[in-house]
Amino acid sequence: MNFELPTTVIDQPELAVSYLAEASNLSKGIVKDAMKKGAVWLTQNGRKRRLRRAKSMLQPGDEVSFYYAEDILNTTPDQPTLVADERDFSVWIKPAGVTSGGTRFGDHCAIDRIIEKRLDRPCFLVHRLDRFAWGLMVVAHGKKSAADLSGQFQARQVKKYYEAIVIGELIEPVTINATVDEKAAISHVTPMTSNGIHSQVRVNIETGRKHQIRQHLSSLGYPILGDRQYGGYHEDQTNEANQADVGLQLAAVELAFQSMSGDTHTYRLDAELSPQLPD
User: Fold this and answer.
1) How far is the C-alpha of 91 from the C-alpha of 160, rounded, in Å?
2) Are residues 238 and 175 in the same domain?
3) CA separation (Å) from 253 to 30, 107, 247?
């Protein structure tokens, strides 16, 4: 069951969980869970934020919105793995399926919210990684660190490397300079190994457009294995490598950037965690 409870203006003081349970015809237990997972929004004095505390008192003039998506709220995300905690920032291995940031329907599957709860520290996203990909991400824990790291990403000072398994035998290195969503995008692709049917490739991107690597490799004629959206998966193929349990074979394997002290930090994904050629 999915629904959106339109924004309503409160006309008298009322307990949040009671108001929402009555308005949605859901139990208070379900409403409490949805609130904790970020599905309820409060606009107060012109400022909109997630409302998580079931016992919060709504006041006259408050605006409340409830976005209920049962499938999202019932999802239990895999946990990211901590690689390094440097206080100002931390580096993690994001599992496939965990998102970079939440939506109006919730944020309990978002890496920043998961880490915020785990470390009990503020978390600021400074870059993103495709939901269906896995690998290294850095998260800032202060506004100064967030501004510094975001600036490095925007100035293309951060070294970002990815590995993928593509369909087809790619032999020569290639640079793809083709717009993504009408924005400039450049990807450098280097072949690593091949079994004649699939190739393992390393990708360095100069820009960070949404689905850039997936679109660029597909346009080259080498879609990423497991990519349903851009041609790396075919329902009618019986090859084990294209069966439904194969996820997107794309991972962020290396990150290098500077801390606010000027030190260079480099992180690499262990080789066994990188995408592997099918047997």
Assistant:
1) 13
2) yes
3) 39, 25, 17
Which CATH number goes with the domain that contains 145?
3.30.2350.10
Q: Which residue has the tokens 């692709």?
A: 189
Give the model confidence (pLDDT) of 180-209 as tens digits. 999 999 999 999 999 999 999 999 999 889
Exposure on the CB side of residue 181, measured as CA atoms within 13 A: 8
**Model-level pTM?**
0.91
Do residues 247 and 165 both lie within one domain? yes
Please indicate, yes or no, whether residues 185 and 111 belong to a single structural domain of this protein: no
- pLDDT tens for residues 120-167? 999 999 999 999 999 999 999 999 999 999 999 999 999 999 999 999
Q: How many CB atoms lie within 10 A of CB 237?
A: 11
Sequence-ordered alpha helix ranges (H) in the chain: 16-24, 28-36, 70-73, 111-119, 143-154, 212-220
